[in-house]
Design brief:
heterodimer, A: PmbA/TldD fold, 7-stranded antiparallel sheet, 10 helices, globular, B: alpha+beta, PmbA/TldD fold, 8-stranded mixed sheet, 9 helices
């Protein structure tokens, strides 16, 4: 059965079995992924895959099911599973199948050249980037690989009210991970590039920048344990924001999993902090005119000059709180809430100026183990970190094997300066570098 | 799942342009997830994962193509894409299939697909109710239930043609305690390579709920952990995550075969303290990380990694074996057909030793006793690892003094396994999901109580 036929048959079968309203959320993707290592392509992957999430209202309650098989058997499975699932749903406030908004925002489409670049050309780019990394510095003897990938993804949302929406997401990404060795010291560099125009991708620059990143970290040592003034560079700050952005979800707030519940209108961050959720951002990786339940999306400030303006909502969480949805529904298992293109608005100072103003302290450039060392429920974090000592406002020796610990809620309030270097490192979530005041560092 | 005649045709196509190895991995999985929040079942989601991956090798180069279309035409189209990506190569003549069904030591008494969702929901409610009942400070109990029945077929040009059924059941309980200003959480996540009979004695939902709640409430009233370098005692069970992160990943061919791991080229050397013996065992009945055959069709086994401090084995998949000129160890695993397999851990643990648990703490002076660990991660190239302590206690003068929260432990794998100076007697297994280049897979970690003579404790 072809996919359109399958979807039509499924919606019809749902009606016949007494499902009052039903909706299909369909995702499909054609992906390419290759890795160069030691001058050859050692891993090459292509795929063509799709999945279908189905939900339906039975006796006023929502049931869910999903499939990757698209045969007759799958239709019977989905319909029966939704009915069984709905019967067990006890949520006080139910999700709804939405008939659709009158108008959806226009998305400024960016052209791409992904279809014009052949597989051979992509492989050559990966090999070129790896060679550039290896040639850049005699201390780079090998790499963990240079990966190049392209993604061509589509989403379709269809329901029994006749709503039929589609969105496409096409981009490339490439990253390099060279290994620098000098004496006993080993360091792994990382640089990533992504976008829609592969012909504009500078493979040589990626390799060189990644090599420089690795070399700069050589001979890093822990600093003494203590309290330090800290600047989180944009990439490390982005990692933090990514794990903690869930605190802005109304769903989590209503489940008492976020301390921002009921605090709209209050000052929750430094007046220097403005946070935007912008689903219409040109070229954003989460750019879309509709959300996971078919609501029109819109750009909004979540935090404006330190004041919490709104949490992020889907239709259900909005109904519970008596407000309008913010168009942040996300379909994953059930219906949840997720940010779109979500970022801290940049300031006017350069990172250099931020460091100069700080004087002495640490610049953190990388944090790892976020799934373990950062607790989105308490806001506490204690993370393995890397970076540089900042002495007299200048970048000095590299630092590793330290932890930096604090609490994200307190960190938002403690921000002393925001740099102008907003970046989205292959993610819809972005941040500029921030001077966050004093944090505890554990080292030697 | 697939006729041998079609499998032959697809493999022949895949290796037609010079590949010297071809493989089909076909999967059909039915799963159910249930989630409860705020005292109510919110979603019950039955799902079906279905697809196939075709892999070919040209020497040490791997090409992987996957699809949801497992019809003859779909598979042939995949094979054609794989063949088209091959550039030269000596080719191979596919061997005739030896058709087998993987041996399964366990008996599945209650296949999850034959258990009503309402019975599963009951277990979820029981855990949540127990968490709520523990204390007024518990403001949220979230419980997730997961089961999977994964049917796979793995065949290749070396004559392997094996079918297998893997049945998993797991309960995830998390509790949040709050005093209005601060939140702390606790969790329990038991599971097994078992059907719904896991609830007949092996998983007690009420105990899990209560224990998650106890952790959360304990941590709510704990001051933050001090920062610095201290001796650390790590309790049994999930404490084994220290070996998993500090050493396990660095013994996988995924990093060893490339010479990237800090343990590359060190077989036969003393890499750990003599009290440390570490094992990766896929054969333990009903354990979460156990396998019958790996995802490359090779029978599972028990592999000693470190014998009294000496490195004796790596975990090796087929491709890693080609790179290392060593035999694979049945360690090829993947999340699903959408991932090419690579070398991964199964049930990986530090074996029981002879040291006395009470002496370990009594003799440590000042330091940290980590009762429950959270997850962690490692960079095998540098060996730098980190993991979180979910429930910790500060030890003063050899006595447990007070609970501490927010601690993490960091270090370099090769240092820390040399600094283990005590290994207790009672080895316990615990369940986790391990993420790596071939996706997220079920694994056990495990150990008896151990002591590390000095470790960097991240706190505030």
């Amino acid at each position: 059965m072809n996919k359109n036929e399958f979807m039509d048959t499924l919606l019809k079968a749902a009606k016949e079995k007494g499902i009052e309203a039903a909706e299909i959320y369909y995702r499909a993707g054609d992906n390419f992924n290759a890795r160069a290592q030691r001058g050859v392509i050692d891993h090459y992957e292509v795929s063509s895959s799709c999945s279908l999430s189905f939900r339906g209202m039975v006796n006023g309650k929502m049931g869910f099911a999903s499939t990757e098989a698209f045969d007759e058997q799958a239709i019977a499975f989905l319909v029966d599973a939704v009915i069984e699932s709905a019967a067990l749903n006890e949520a006080e406030e139910q999700d709804e199948i939405f008939a659709g908004d009158e108008k959806y925002p226009d998305i400024e489409e960016e052209t791409d050249d992904l279809d014009q670049v052949t597989a051979e050309e992509k492989l050559a780019l990966a090999i070129k980037a790896e060679k550039a990394a290896l040639d850049a510095d005699p201390r780079i003897g090998q790499t963990e690989g240079v990966v190049i990938m392209t993604e061509n993804g589509q989403v379709a949302l269809r329901n029994t009210y006749g709503l039929n929406l589609t969105n496409a997401q096409r981009f490339y990404a490439a990253y390099a991970m060279p290994i620098a060795k000098d004496g006993d010291s080993t360091a792994v560099g990382f640089k990533l590039s992504y976008g829609r125009k592969l012909r504009e991708f500078d493979a040589e620059k990626l390799g060189k920048d990644a090599a420089a990143d690795a070399a700069a970290q050589l001979h890093a040592e822990p600093v003494a344990s203590g309290e330090y003034r800290i600047v989180f560079r944009h990439d490390a700050m982005q990692s933090l924001l990514q794990v903690f952005c869930g605190i802005f979800s109304a769903e989590r707030a209503q489940q008492k999993m976020s301390l921002l519940a009921g605090r709209e209108g209050e000052e929750i961050a430094s007046p220097l902090i403005t946070i935007m959720d912008d689903p219409l951002r040109k070229g954003g990786l989460a750019t879309a005119a509709f959300d996971g339940e078919g609501s029109a999306t819109r750009t909004k400030a979540v935090v404006e000059k330190g004041v919490l303006k709104t949490l992020l909502h889907n239709r259900r969480t909005a109904k519970i709180q008596g407000v309008q949805t913010t168009g942040n529904a996300m379909r994953s298992g059930g219906m949840h809430v997720s940010p779109t293109n979500f970022y801290i608005v940049p300031g006017e100072k350069s990172l250099k100026d931020l460091l100069r103003d700080m004087g002495d302290g640490l610049m953190i450039t990388d944090v790892s183990g976020l799934h373990a060392g950062a607790n989105p429920i308490s806001g506490d974090f204690s993370l393995l970190a890397k970076g540089f000592v900042i002495r007299g406002g200048e970048q000095a020796e590299p630092v590793e094997r330290v932890t930096v610990a604090g609490n994200f809620y307190q960190l938002l309030k403690a921000v002393r300066a925001v740099a102008d270097d907003l970046d989205f490192p292959g993610s819809p979530i972005g941040s500029p570098s921030l001077d966050v005041g004093i944090l505890t560092v554990s080292g030697k | 799942m697939l006729q041998t005649r079609i499998a032959e045709e697809v493999l022949a196509k895949a290796v037609s342009t010079g590949a010297d190895f071809g493989e089909i991995f076909l999967e059909d999985q039915t799963e159910t997830t249930i989630s409860l929040k705020s005292g109510r079942i919110e979603t019950v989601q039955p799902g079906r994962t279905h697809g196939a991956g075709i892999r070919v090798f040209v020497g040490t180069q791997a090409i992987y193509v996957y699809t949801n279309d497992t019809s003859r035409e779909g598979l042939l189209a995949c094979a054609e894409k794989a063949a088209a990506a091959v550039n030269g190569g000596k080719g191979c003549k596919p061997a005739p299939f030896n058709v087998v069904h993987a041996e399964r030591p366990e008996e599945i008494r209650l296949l999850p697909t034959e258990v009503k969702a309402s019975a599963k929901a009951e277990k979820v409610r029981e855990a949540a109710a127990a968490a709520r009942a523990y204390s007024d400070e518990i403001v949220q109990a979230q419980v997730g239930y997961l089961d999977r029945v994964q049917d796979v077929l793995i065949c290749n040009t070396e004559g392997t043609f094996v079918t297998d059924r893997r049945v998993y059941t797991r309960l995830n309980v998390s509790a949040v305690a709050s005093d209005g200003k601060e939140n702390q959480s606790g969790g329990m996540n038991p599971g097994g390579l078992m059907g719904f009979e896991i609830f007949d004695g092996r998983i007690d939902p009420a105990y899990c709920g209560k224990e998650a709640a106890r952790q959360a409430v304990t941590m709510l009233h704990a001051p933050v952990c001090p920062a610095g370098v201290f001796p650390v005692v790590i309790d049994n069970g999930f404490g084994g995550v220290i070996f998993h992160e500090a050493c396990g990943h660095s013994l996988e061919a995924t990093s060893v075969a490339y010479g990237i791991s800090e343990f590359s080229g060190r077989l036969g050397e003393m890499i750990a303290a003599p009290c440390v013996t570490a094992i990766d065992d896929g054969t333990i009945m009903n354990e979460w990380g156990s396998t019958h055959v790996d995802d490359e069709g090779m029978p599972t086994g028990r592999l000693v990694l470190i014998d009294h401090g000496k490195l004796v084995n790596y975990m090796i998949d087929k491709l890693g074996g080609r790179r290392m000129n060593m035999a694979p160890t049945g360690s090829g695993r993947r999340q699903s057909y959408a991932w090419a397999p690579t070398s991964r851990m199964r049930n990986t643990f530090i074996a029981a030793g002879e040291d006395d648990e009470e002496e370990m703490i009594a003799g440590m002076g000042e330091g940290l006793y980590a009762k429950y660990m959270g997850g962690g991660s490692v960079n095998p190239a540098t060996g730098e690892f980190n993991f979180a302590v979910n429930e910790g206690y500060w030890v003063k003068d050899g006595k447990i003094d007070h609970p501490v929260r927010g601690a993490s432990l960091i270090g370099r794998g090769s240092d820390v396994i040399l600094k283990i100076d005590r290994v207790g007697k009672n080895c316990v297994q615990a369940q986790g999901m391990c993420g790596s280049v071939s996706g997220s897979i079920p694994v056990n970690v495990g150990q008896p109580m151990i002591r590390v003579s000095s470790l960097t404790v991240g706190g505030r």
